[in-house]
Design goal:
13 helices; two-stranded antiparallel sheet; alpha/beta; binds flavin mononucleotide
Length: about 350
């Protein structure tokens, strides 16, 4: 490929990422009618709790590391000037709280090294936490995709690597690549050849049990359901296109709560990390996602918005307040540990 074309491609990737950030700083891109599904559930209040709230520990395993809260700042950005600053700040938050952090798609880093620092800054600012690399499904279809992943993982000293599947977004994106033929085969090869744990995530339309089973059979070690009810990536692309075509897909997807309860059932047969995300926008959502069976919960857009409005201190305060809510829920349901919270469970609200 000649230099000029590479530069042009890279500019397009950076521009797209920049527009995504700008739109996601607004609430215009939320689902319209569909919820994340947690409103169907409530906790069973336990009037004679004997839990000592100050003794509750929320630390959790994240592959080979231990994090202080079962929380991941979802993959968002990289590959633009703006991204470097955002990632630098998110890394400080994640490092201070000892939680996990994902980088946004590293596709741009494959095109040239102009914005490599926008990814590398994360490990620089967060030496010890679990960091996740990221690339889209469309980029792993070629032969030797495992080499790309190894290269990208090394760039950020990743602990695990995320492959995002986003068929709806690709379908609606101008110049999208809605063709994942050969995906599972490629994924299986990558899982065999890359020593890091591979996680597959959606971006807001959810992963059902059937798809999750195929992913686990291919060898993935983590599934992030990224279900419906939070950020609508159909919405983001429709707004970018300034064209209402595709609007009937704005609310497309499986609510996050339904994804978690479906995919959790596979824990009887496979050993994997279940990440609950997609519209986790407050502590009660986080508590319900954990109680339904998530090992870790994750959020994207609300964190970005909070960072923009209130900086590092604001995001830290937000995440700590969510886990304060989780502890209160545990106290009120007589749950000493997250495992007990999962057992004491949620009940579906009868209508
Ligand atoms: C600004 C922005 C950029 C994103 N970029 C990526 C990305 O590069 N790779 C990815 O896997 N997911 C990406 N996502 C999707 C999120 O990781 C997440 O799955 C999705 O937004 C749903 O979570 P939410 O409802 O908490 O926003 C992005 C999200 C936001 C808000």
């Amino acid at each position: 490929m000649n230099d000029k074309i590479t530069r042009k491609m890279s500019e397009t990737t950076s521009k797209r990422k920049k527009e995504h950030i700008e739109l996601c700083l607004t609430d215009k891109v939320a689902f319209i009618e569909k919820s994340n599904g947690f409103d169907k559930y409530e906790f069973s209040h336990y009037a004679i709790t004997e839990i000592e709230i100050e003794k509750i520990k929320l630390s959790a395993k994240f592959f080979n590391k231990v994090i202080d809260f079962p929380f991941l700042i979802s993959c968002m950005t990289g590959g633009t000037m703006e991204a470097e600053n955002i990632n630098a700040l998110l890394a400080v938050v994640a490092n201070n709280l000892n939680i996990a952090l994902g980088v946004g798609s590293q596709r741009q880093a494959l095109e040239n090294d102009t914005h490599h620092n926008s990814y590398k800054i994360i490990r620089k600012n967060a030496p010890k936490i679990p960091i996740l690399g990221n690339i889209g499904a469309a980029q792993i279809l070629s032969a030797k995709a495992e080499d790309k992943i190894k290269y990208l993982a090394e760039l950020i000293e990743a602990d695990a690597f995320v492959i995002h599947v986003n068929p709806l977004q690709e379908l609606l994106q101008k110049n999208g690549e809605p063709n994942f033929k050969g995906f599972l085969k490629s994924l299986e090869r990558i899982c065999n050849k890359v020593s890091l744990p591979i996680i597959v995530k959606e971006v807001g339309a959810g992963i059902n049990r059937k798809a999750a089973k195929k992913l686990l059979e291919a060898g993935v070690k983590g599934i992030d359901v990224a279900g419906a009810g939070g950020t609508s990536w159909a919405g983001v692309e429709i707004l970018r296109n300034k064209d209402e075509r595709g609007i009937e897909f704005w609310d497309w997807g499986i609510p996050t709560a339904d994804c978690i309860s479906e995919v959790k059932k596979l824990k009887n047969h496979f050993d994997f990390m279940l990440i609950g995300s997609g519209g986790i926008n407050n502590g009660m959502d986080a508590a319900k996602a954990l109680a339904l069976g998530s090992d870790v919960v994750a959020s994207a857009r609300i964190i970005l918005q909070c960072l923009d409005q209130s900086g590092i201190a604001g995001v830290e305060k937000l995440i700590l307040s969510w886990f304060d809510t989780v502890k209160k829920v545990m106290y009120l349901t007589n749950s000493r540990s997250l495992n007990q919270l999962r057992k004491n469970g949620l009940q579906e609200i009868r209508k």
